[in-house]
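Side project, low priority. Logging it here so it doesn't get lost.
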Amino acid sequence: MYIHEHPSWPKFRWDSDKIIVLLEAVGRLQGLLFGRLSNLGFEDKLQAMADNMTRDVVYSSEIEGIQLNADEVRSSIARRLGIDSMKDLATSSHYVDAVVAVSIDACEHAKDQLTDEKLFGWQSAFFPTGFSQGASIEVGKYRTHEEHIVSGLMDREKVHYVAPSPERVPSEMKQFLDWFNSDSGLPYAVASAIAHFWFVSIHPFEDGNGRLSRILGDVLLARGDNSTLRFYNMSSEINRDKKHYYDILERTQHGDGDITEWLVWYLQTLKTALEDANRIVSRTLNKSMFWQRVAGVPMTERQTKTLNLFLDGYESKITTKQWATLNKCSVDTAGRDIQDLLTKGILTMEIPGAKRPSYAIRYRGAAELPADLVENAKIEHNEVSDNYYLISSFNGSPVKEWVLPLDAERLLRNDTTIEILIDKYCAYLIAE
């Protein structure tokens, strides 16, 4: 028996006690993210949004087995957002432009009423030729046939879920849209989870339901954030754990209306997405602060390009050999580049006198680090997520910043210092 066959459908229920802690964590991370974003200039915010939307569009498609070129997606988004510095990355196809247009339309008009016609238009954009995987499908209207979610070869197919009959779809969607367009009184994170599950369980279209369900979940999150600018997304996290995503969907769709397990999974995934977004915004802030500090300092194009690579999170220590490899130049040329940047105070030697020297970017110049930040600093490893964090406190408030695994390992080997890592990951914090 499927969930939509129960008499109580679609009156979902859940154990609030099992989601309250996750809801509080999500709220804290949302507040932290938008606090950090307030320190970004408008152009930096647009670039951060473009990067986030690129990941969202690419990974939401990848979940469904559709591969999109990330450079094409990023270029299409940049043109639509008017970001001149990113417009010429690649020439995007009409299909990519159409898919991107759906995501931007959903964000920009998150507060608008959701209608059948809008959904028809979005679904049509995903299938401009009327074909999916070589087969003709119904486009721009609700399905008119049974929908079975199956996997496996034709002679060994496994049926995971059977959606409501096509005769029920119009009334099911009316009920869904009435709820979606009203104030449910629920926390937006919970409403987002319900919208995602409810829509994909109705499965109103012949194809495109998964991508649309994730878009609708994002629309409700945008309403909760009271912002048309999107800086975090669920799709990249779902794509990392697709099997669990489909397993939890199937179990809940075979249930009796209790969606507690789905809500716990969804909120945990949202929490991880927000942690990733905070990490990316922190890096953007640190990068912005660095370039403000060195504005006017003469550098070659090669030096600027290589510094940007490391500022964007390239996982490697800076050595003469690595610099030469990245730039396809001689070791002597790389050495001159690095020595020039050392002289200008842009780089510093990590361990003075080391036999094989490595270098670090000086985000804050010669300014001293706050004593409390240094004294309380340590690296912690979360074994569940396999992430490393720099833990400390600053002005009485806790500090927790994700660090590259390589940096954590190098600190344990005494190949770098805690001060170098504080400067790299917390420069923006000290500047506030």
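Brief comment: Strands lie at 131-132, 135-136, 148-151, 158-162, 347-349, 359-361, 378-382, 387-394, 397-403.
Revisit when time allows.
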